[in-house]
Design goal:
171 residues; mainly beta; five-stranded antiparallel beta sheet; 46% strand
Length: 171
């Protein structure tokens, strides 16, 4: 019995040390999957950078953004999906929000990157869970009023990227 428990503990530790397919590890200011590593780093007052590394190709890119009143965001959620015929990485980050009202303690923003070349696409206020799973190129669903508040609007010419986020208006 003890040997089996030790073996199970060793296997669990090995599984956490190197991400397997479908596993995502959040560790302080970074998040890592089997194919991708994302690091968030401060860049002066109220600015931060998102560093992306494709672990299969070695490609590295970084983008600098305003920090919503803070320069120390943390990864909150990372989802790989497909929008407007493009594979994308959606990264929600959490900012500590320094506000005099105690009920406002954090801000969540989501950034989209194209999987193939790690190009920045767009960002929106709110978490990945607020983004509708349907895009504007699909026929409108019967339950559109039940969809999350952020929609994906496909861009036909792809000059500015494959899509942009759009806040849904209530009827």
């Amino acid at each position: 019995m003890r040997i089996a428990l030790r073996l199970l503990a060793a296997l669990l530790l090995l599984g956490l040390a190197s991400p397997s397919v479908g596993q995502t590890i959040f560790d302080g200011p970074s998040v890592e999957s089997a194919e991708l590593r994302v690091e968030l780093r401060p860049r002066g007052e109220d600015r931060f950078a998102i560093y992306l590394t494709d672990k299969t190709t070695g490609r590295q890119v970084d983008y600098e953004f305003d920090g919503e009143g803070a320069n120390d965001p943390q990864p909150f959620l990372m989802v790989e999906g497909r929008y407007c015929n493009t594979s994308v990485i959606l990264l929600t980050i959490e900012f500590p929000w320094r506000h005099s009202l105690q009920q406002y303690t954090r801000v969540l923003d989501t950034y989209a990157f194209r999987t193939s070349d790690l190009a920045y696409i767009d960002m929106t206020a709110g978490p990945v869970t607020d983004i509708a799973l349907v895009d504007s190129s699909e026929p409108e669903a019967e339950d559109m009023s039940m969809q999350p508040p952020i929609l994906v609007e496909c861009i036909s010419d792809h000059v500015d990227g494959p899509f942009r986020f759009e806040m849904k208006t209530r009827n």
